[in-house]
Amino acid sequence: MSQQTAGIHHITAFVKNAQDNVDFYAGILGLRLVKKTINFDAPEVYHLYFGNEVGSPGTAITFFPWETARHGRIGGGQVGYTTFLVPVGSLDFWEKRLDKFQVEYRRIERFQEIYLQFADKDGLQLEIVEREGGPASQWTFGGIPADKAIKGFGGAILYSVAPKHTMEVLEKLMGLTRVGEENGLVRFQAPGDLGNIIDVNAEPMPRGAGGAGTVHHIAWRAKDDQDHRLWQSRVAQSGFHPTDIIDRQYFHAIYFREPGEILFEIATDPPGFERDEPFESLGEKLMLPEWYEPHRAEIEQGLPPIAVHVLAEDKE
User: Fold this and answer.
1) What angle do CA 117, 152, 262 make, to 5 degrees?
2) CA 178 from chain center: how many Å?
3) In sequence order, what are the residues at sequence separation of 6 or more whose Cβ sits closer than 8 angstroms to the Cβ of residue 100?
4) Cα separation of 211 and 170, whole Å?
5) What is the DSSP string of 269-302?
6) pLDDT given for residue 38 in this prediction
7) Smallest Cα–Cα separation from 148: which of 138, 162, 160, 163?
8) Which residues have CB under 8 Å from 1's CB, separation 6+?
9) Inter-CA distances, 9 with 103, 220, 253, 260, Å
10) pLDDT of residue 132
């Protein structure tokens, strides 16, 4: 395979309330809000990015909080579960933490690993697994020490309306390796050390409906702009219809919908989130692309105020 993605770059989802979103992913899960910007296609809506200390590729989960959004239905054509990776030996810590914040969860076993499955306030399906791989997060917040902190993505479970075709895309186009099958799931692995384990439901899933509590798209990693242009060409040669390359400020992106109806993005690793803010103050200011700067006052007035703060349960 001449070209392979290292794994997941980021995952983007819809939610309703922006402050609830910050409280859950920063306050409870301890991720860093690394960028506070807007949906470039709908500037009245935030685009919030959470990840490790710098939002490295393979760690960033991002959200469009839209107060008036309809509630979605998780199903075919979507990411079913987003998997977070924690250090080995920290699963008990996370059970206690979810208990403390009254987040209901269940323990399941899959491919000889134990997962904690739970949902955020909007119903977005999440899970935590412990593994050796991947660099440790350097970010600590609230009651979460660095040696227990989420490292980034472990991977995802994909819900497809045409799983055989989705699996073919993962294997033949994206360069993942099929490594196992168990209880109706087929497992694929990418060569990276984060966001590298993808499970696909082997049976077609009833079609989902977009809205709050659902994933909008899953993005795969491209090394740089040269690699990205090659991906665009390969996607087109494979019979799909990639978009033009779009400048998302912190990465360049192309999008295409694979035959199982999941929206795939391919995004460049550089330039990253420190391109317009220093490390020390990532995520503190609303960052706008230059074409929206003349409208800053109007945009800021239309967005609800949000703040990252230690939650009451961590002050006790």
Assistant:
1) 70
2) 22
3) 313
4) 25
5) S-S-GGGSS-GGGTTSSB---GGGGGGHHHHHHH
6) 98
7) 138
8) 175
9) 27, 5, 11, 20
10) 96
Q: Which residues contact 13 (CB under 8 A, 6 or more apart)?
A: 61, 62, 63, 64, 82, 124, 213, 214, 215, 216
Distances (CA, A) of 166 to 76, 122, 131, 198, 204: 11, 27, 26, 11, 10
- pLDDT recorded at residue 316: 80
Q: Token digits for 215? A: 């994933």
Q: Which helix (H) or strand (E) holds 228?
A: helix 225-237
Alpha carbon of 195 to those of 82, 136, 152, 298, 316: distances in Å?
A: 10, 14, 7, 37, 34
Query: Which pLDDT does position 98 carry in this prediction?
Result: 98
Name the amino acid, one letter, at 1: M
* Residues in the chain, pLDDT under 50: none
Report how far residue 98's alpha carbon sits from residue 93's, in angstroms, rounded to the nearest whole number. 9
Residue 2 is predicted with a pLDDT of: 81
Radius of gyration of the chain (CA): 18
